Every structure is written in structure tokens, then in C-alpha cells.
Amino acid sequence: MRTESAHDSLCRQRSNNEIPDGGTGLTSRLVWRRIGDGRPPFRLAWLCQAPSQREDSTKHAAIIGPIAVLLAAGTAVASVDMSPRPGGVYRLKPGIYVARGESCRSPANAVIRQYDGRGISGAHSRACRVTIRSHRSNRFVVDQSCIDAGSGPAPRSTERQTVTVHDALTFTQATGGTGTTYRYCPIDQLPAGLRNAES
pTM above 0.70? Predict the structure, then answer.
């Protein structure tokens, strides 16, 4: 048998005031309630309910419960990464990368790289395309051709690079010397201008 909780006690006091003719009374029940203006997210709340109301709320909870589990966090749903999966020539995740140790939220132009599946461009290059010259394990020796400007007309140039892919979110790029390691930045950590560049 269900024991009376503190919530039940409060509901019983309400019953004495609201159902004076000895009705079935009110008991407490934990149900999903909308917060604020009636839109998601939802939260759990105690309600005082008569038996007929409890039957209706059980049906309602069966529908709302699974939705509320997904929406209760609100911002967590909004922050889901919808960017493309790893792929392309290097099997990296397409998007914006910054040099290891640099912030994704306010990176300098010099430490930014963008991978689009066909090449790795910088802040002052675009439309980069790779021709693989050799490939062993996770190490690629390539000739990368880029338009030498972030925008507007500019010539295309080619340079030899060595790219080492550590995992789907990290790579090292070297051009004739010591390389620099870059890490992927989730889109919700980027400043507005770079979010637009990624999309």
C-alpha cells in the first residue's frame, strides 16, 4: 500500500476545504509540467489530483515523458553538433581548427585552419585541393594547391606539405620544417564570423 507523503498530507488538507461532502479527496502525484509560457522544456512537479484527473494525467505523462527526457536540458539539445562526419582526403571532421593551445572562442587569423574534405585552407587562402604523393599509415605527403586570398581574385599556388592525422579531430601540418598541430573546434565554441565560415 502507498504510504502518505508530505505532499499527500498537503493535498488532504486541500480536500477538506475543496471537497466538503466527503468526496474521494485529492492525492499527490509526480507529473511532467511545462515551464513558463507553455513551451518546452518540461520539469517534474507535484500536483494534487482527484482520481479522474490521475487517470488523465497518466495518459498525458505517457506521451510527454519521453519528449521531456529529451527537452528537459534545453540548451543541451540546442548544442548538438550537426556538422558533417569525418571524411574526405584526410578522414578529418570538416570544419574549423586552431593551433593546439589556442582558444576556439577568439583565435588569431594565423592559427586558424579550415578543412573542407578536399584540402586545408588558412585565413588568407581558399579552395585548397590536395594531390597525394605518398601515404603511409596516418602520414600524407601532398602537393596542396590554393587560391592565395581569403576572397577576391588571386593566383593559385602549390606547395609540398606533410600532414599527419592523429585522429578525426587532430592533425599536424608541416611545410618544409617543423609542423604545427591543430585541433577541431565545435561550432558552438566559435565566434560568430567563424560559425558562418563553417556553415
Answer: no
